[in-house]
Amino acid sequence: MDFFVSVDEQQIRREREKARKLRKERWWQNKIAAGVCHYCGKNVPPKELTLDHIVPVARGGLSSKNNCVPACKECNNKKKNLLPLEWDDYLKKLERH
Predict the structure, then answer these.
(1) pLDDT given for residue 6 in this prediction
(2) Is 88 a domain residue?
(3) Is residue 13 part of a domain?
(4) Residue spans of the chain under pLDDT 70
(5) CB distance 49 to 37 below 8 Å
(6) Cα–Cα distances in angstroms (integers) from residue 43 to residues 17, 35, 71, in the given order
(7) Dist CA 9 CA 59 (whole Å)
(8) DSSP string, 44-97
(9) DSSP secondary structure code for residue 43 in this structure
(10) Rounded to an integer, what distance in angstroms lies between the CA atom of residue 45 and that of residue 15?
(11) How far apart are CA 87 and CA 55, in angstroms?
(12) What is the pLDDT of residue 2?
């Protein structure tokens, strides 16, 4: 099953610009202040948390408050452009090994 959505470079640039603006908002500062990664639940210094799109911009996701979560660099790097369902499948495979 292919979950890729065709997203042009211009749309990706717009969404990344929106994400840069979101990171400056009080809302984001409050989100990272807790210092917890959305994916693994580890405590991380707030300055080390990254903004991750649950549905990646490259897959049609938007830079909105309900699609952006704080993630540690390790989880963000592993998740890359995976959709939530694909990420869950990845985690289940790890548990089996």
Answers:
(1) 77
(2) yes
(3) yes
(4) 1-5, 97
(5) yes
(6) 27, 5, 10
(7) 12
(8) --GGG-EEEESS-GGGT---STTTEEEE-HHHHHHHTT--HHHHHHHHHHHHH-
(9) B
(10) 26
(11) 10
(12) 52
Cα–Cα distance for residue pair 80/87, rounded to 1 Å: 9
Which residue shows structure tokens 């959305």? 38
Q: How many domains does the chain have?
A: 1
d(CA 22, CA 17): 9
The pLDDT of residue 29 is 97
Place of tokens 């210092």: 35
Identity (one letter) of the amino acid at 8?
Answer: D
What's residue 40's pLDDT?
A: 93
- How many Å apart are CA 90 and CA 24, to the nearest integer? 31
How many other C-beta atoms lie within 10 A of the C-beta of residue 73? 13
Residue 2 lies in a domain: no
Cβ atoms of residues 56 and 3 within 8 Å: no
